[in-house]
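Much of the work behind modern protein science is quiet bookkeeping, done one molecule at a time. The protein below has been through that process, and both of its lines are reproduced in full.
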Amino acid sequence: MVDFSFSEAERAIRRTAREFAEEEIAPVAREHEETGEWPRAVWEKAVETGLVGGTIPEEYGGAGLSQVETCLFMEEIARVDAGMLAAIGTEFGTRMIREYGTDDQKERILRGVAEGELIGALGNTEPKHGSDAASIETTAEKEGDEYIIDGVKTFITHGTVADYVLTMARTGGEGHAGISAFIVETDRDGFEVEREIEKMGWNASETAQLRYDGVRIPEENLVGTENAGFYQLMEFFEEERVGIGAQALGIAQGCLDETVEYVKQRSQFDRELREFQAVQHSVADMALKVETARRLVYDAAQRIDDGGKPTKLASMAKLHASEIAEEVASEAVQLHGGNGYTREYPVERQFRHTKIYQIGEGASAIQRNIIAGELLDL
């Protein structure tokens, strides 16, 4: 069981992230959510502050954060606005490159992302294949010392601003064993943003559908081993899912904080809202959900840092945190009354953000499958 007393270094990361969120994100979050404009200035400030590329090793210009430290950072930013966290997180694909990339790939991509020279995206999901990653249809045909990529990827975060997309493509037969990973620079001939996708939340973080029409890349853009790309990607699902759990936890904590302040200040029927027992019970239930999610998230994070691979616990953390985020945010809107339904209060925005956490990095049904599989030896 994890020790929930964080070290001074971990508390320092939390303070830095909280200050950045409150000073740089809170004043502009509503504007970027409504306009859908990617917050380049905030991202540049995050790069300057050292908050981009946190998981990238220090030798390549990153912060080399542990999983616990990464979760603290994500929770604090998402506490203010989860959509803005998605917007400034530009290190997609770097975990795989860190583990399986060549020295040249590491120097070029990892350092480029950490120093704000490159923005990354991950191209896995396709129009017909979301959770069923084994059935992707994008192909990479070898021709001489090049690969030719054809296909379509969708729901790609940073698809319109990315400098490269770590693209999963079929190089072998059917199923998981025929998939490889490639670095595809977005300025190559045949690559295009087919359309931008409008969403219910996360609007500061643009999302796109991408088309690869005979895109030629050099063979040195293959990451790791041919036909092993899916398994390479799976190596980091625990980290990714625990990170998603931390973000959802941040939403829930932020909505709880906003609600506590609101019911202290708001009065109805000549009484403060906090004096009504029904309100007290609602707030107590919200706090209980937040704390149970926090323990799952940080327990899983610490086990990863200790060298473990907590598949079941990571899925539990992701599943529970994503579901309580929606519940807590919904109750926050309810306790704000009519104000909660307006865009003037952040709980409305955070409530819209919650749904993606039950879908991305493996939908809730997939997490239940994983948990049951671990328990029942399936």
